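Page 37, top half.
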Amino acid sequence: MVFRPAPIRPANEQFPKFKRAHRPLNVPYFIARRIRHTPTSSFSSTVTRVGIASIAIGLAVILIAFAVLFGFKQAIQQKIFVFGAHITVSKFSLNNSYEEPPLPLRTPLYGQARSIGGLRHIQAVATKAGMLKTPDELSGAVLKGVGRDYDWDLFRSALVAGSIPRFDRDTSDCSPDYSCRVLISKRISDRMQLGVGQDVVMYFIGNTLRPRRLNVVGIYETGLEEVDNVMVIGDLRLIQRINNWGPDSVGSYEIFVNDFDKLNDTYGGVRKMASADMRPVRVTDTYRPLFDWMLLLDQNTAIFMALILFVAGFNMVAILLVLMMERTPMIGLFKAFGSTDNLIRRVFWHVGLNIVVRGLPLGNLIGIGLCALQYYFRVIPLDPRNYYMNTVPIAWDIPVIVLVNVATIAMIGLVLWLSTLIITRIEPVKALVFKK
């Protein structure tokens, strides 16, 4: 019998539970982590905290700027669209007053408006100028008549007292043919000393004065001076009666689109379907000064953001240079041992990027927290005569918040990588004798 020794197996096969996966060591990340874990009283730790605070403040300011900018734009557009539709179609006329020539309802545009791409809603309205009269006050006003197809969703946000009236065929509180319920603005209410439930007489001027007693059922406020000073919302049938129009005649069509950014595309479809005697007008043309002001806000915010990112990037470059100056002997020692410039650059790039990543959560917390404070508690007021609103508006846009964070990391990461080029200029002999 021949004795044959058992083959010797590797240790990891003899003892499977001690088997370990061998992974290559990430030398730059390992060294960067050791640099970061310095005593809190050291100079490097202080510089790191300054860098984190710089990133956090810069990101917070950017987030607040975006939230306020989008809030202003949404608030102003919402106020404009309470009375100004995206597209208004009226009878072509050289008359620029509130007296409108009649526009028939039975037209291809009104009947087939749903076939136009991007169109959300179309409604028929009319306006009529007149005078509001109380025992003590007299004021000019414009009655805007609306019908049962009127979309009240946008108007509800502007209502400050009372309720929204109904103007359908079944509502006829003062006459068998129309309703006398109206909505007035807060400015008219204050000027005329009118409240919800009170009556006011409105004189319509024509060949003869035609007074109508109206009942105030609600008060609104948009902040737009040219609207709040004169506009009264009433029944379309009342204007048809005063103008001796039939039920198929209105003053204009108001058209709303699904996506305001595609307004021009829908406007082109409306122009193609409109007849030669119709005049479509975009809201951007009617309220051009306001939209030019919002465009100026976009430009100012872009410049403001660029300055903030530049300052934040410059601060990170300065902080990283200070850290490299402090670690100059270590850089010289690494070079003496044969380390490449690229490896050392990656070490400090990891150090700087870690500062950015630690500053981002703090910046998000500060920026989003301050925006939430203003959004829910309205701690910062505004003068509505200058800003069209009484408080700083805040709008939430999650994709923009994510994009700002990603852009901050990408831009400052690139700046950090470029700043580490100074390592290639450090000579080992001079670095080893460098004295702090």
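Page 37, bottom half:
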Amino acid sequence: MKRKLTFSVLAAVMTVTVFAQQNVGINYNLFNPEITADKKATFKVLAPQAENVLVWGDFQTTPLQLQKDTAGVWSATTDVLASELYTYRLIVDGLPVNDPFNPYQLRDIAGVANYFIIDGEKNHYLPHDVKHGNISKVWYHSPSSGKDRRMTVYTPAGYDDSDSKRYPVFYLLHGMGGDENAWSELGRASYILDNMIASGDAEPMIVVMPNGNANEVAAPGETPEGLYLPSGSRSRSSDNQFEASFKEIIDYVDSHYRTLTDRKHRAIAGLSMGGGHSWRISMQNPELFDYVGLFSAAAGWRGSDITPMDNEHLLSEGMMGIFNNPPALYCIGIGKDDFLMPLNDQLRKVLDDNNFKYTYHLSDGGHIWRNWRDYLSLFLPQLFK
């Protein structure tokens, strides 16, 4: 029964999207969603055999119910949407499916969703007609693991036009279940950097996005392991394993790129697990980074335990070193509904108790890419000034 249901639902959705050779290049006359001038999104789905079609997206708290016309086209329009990148999936007769009328998709761990962008104040998420930096997938050897590992490296526009100019470096770390592709794809980092550098809102910089999963060498499906189901559990490693090996990444970058190698030209930031990595790496090596960003940070995360820690525990981990050698910028950002708020509240208490200067951005929402892209956009203009 389950197999019949799955087939009938997919047949309904894919009525006009048969992947036979003769159908390559057919115009299906539908593209989702259509963005109206007043910033609403209209969805249309040709599924004449379906009995119920919903759109479940991060642009509203409940699914959007579509209505069917006599031609079998289901449609509905959202309320006015704020400028943002939104993700969604269709739910056809109870089965979540990707939208065959939108070719634009993002993978987040094992989930794949379609996306669209409402232009406006956050239009730096879109590629503009500006000079573009380059994104490279770079393999480096990790002596501590004995393996070759991969990272993503952004070099700004103009980097290849000179053989002498040196640049500051920003190390940007992903969260649990992510990989070296996360910030460039889900985070739109290269577009944000291109646009903010072109406008003068950010300094030209090299941005290094390593794979923070200490036991993995690269993103899922791009290693000798072949194709497997991505999982957040693959991010787990021994305490401090990634942090202890981080200087290998710095050494490689400094020896293969034209970098400025002093503290005032080096920054580190990360989201969730990567925020925890950034917290520990910066406090274990306070001489290396003058700019630190903690985005929904799992500061204090130990194994599978996500619990607030007391001041003594935090200080015993080495925070006194960074208290005695504070960076030029220590930035914390988190959403009001984020499940890691208790850890961040405790961290802020420790900082306040020690009169440690930091900036704090409290936003709406929870543990979501929408917030992390915003924190990156707020963080970049403050670097290397």
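Margin note: The domain at 2-121 is CATH 2.60.40.10 (Immunoglobulin-like).
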